[in-house]
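note to self — DONT lose this again. spent like an hour looking for the file last time. sequence + predicted structure for the chain T wanted, 335 res
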Amino acid sequence: MSANATAAGAGRRIIAVMVLIPFVVTLTLWAFAWPAARTAPRDLPIGLAGPATVVTALEQDLARHEGAFEVHRYEDGAAARAAIADRDVYGAVVVTPGGTELLTASAASPVVAGLLREAVTSMAPEGARVQVTDVVTAPAGDPRGAVLASSLLPLALAGAAAGVVTTLLGLRGGRAVAALAGAAALAGLVGTALAHSWLGALGGNWWAEAGVLGLTVLAIGSTFAGLAALVGKPGLGLGALLMILLGNPFSGVSSAPELLPTAVGTLGQWLPPGAAGSALRSVSSFEGAAAGGPLLVPALWAAAGLTATALGARRRSAEPARDAAAAAPVPARAG
């Protein structure tokens, strides 16, 4: 190769680096900063209970915040509390002859609980007192939800590491599946020991929480390994884009999916990190209420990833055999 050709190749690589890095920075800032800058309620489920005329007036007041709230009516305070416990709504306003009471659930989202407190207090007549009751409190070790939000990225990184290491070590088929499953199970146990037993950031059934964490790591890890098995090492980059660059900031775990731009919040709940955050809140504080849908998401990703890992290994194993057969000389026919 001539010196000119070598210099030209080096120049192209320099330009590629100069263009690629700003692009990655732009994409990362967009994914992380833009949803945070656009945080606001969008069809946030909230309940109302009380006399029909009063509830209608409250509903009209909430409607002034166009598109912010999705109102559900309940017969009384008990029904509203049950809806909060079932994770049908984030909170409820209950009007009785004794006054107005706001029911919140900081375990569902401390940010939403604060937002509802501000919104309902601002709507109350001047001088009127609004009693605030936290129906489902956040765990004592994580009253602001900061630990849960901070745990999501390490969880995603653990899954990514499992998929990348499995791929780079050349594990295929059943061996790859066993490695991914074993790593996910151990990660779930260790993560729960830290978050539940040590930090007190989770307060539900220990083994259910470990199952959610392990399933999440398995879903992310098998996605990395499956994509790499199908398309090679570029699949690892695609896995990082989906699970870390988009999955983490789009999860809504630091606030709530309904506080993110609509498309972002919806997409985040179809990716394992976001679904895991919702499922973990359910099993930690709501006795598993409304956990079925969020758990189905990582389960489907895990099934697809493990299937791709196994099928991709078979396809790659078959390619050398086909190449060898094609290169073999054709025996001459007897004349």
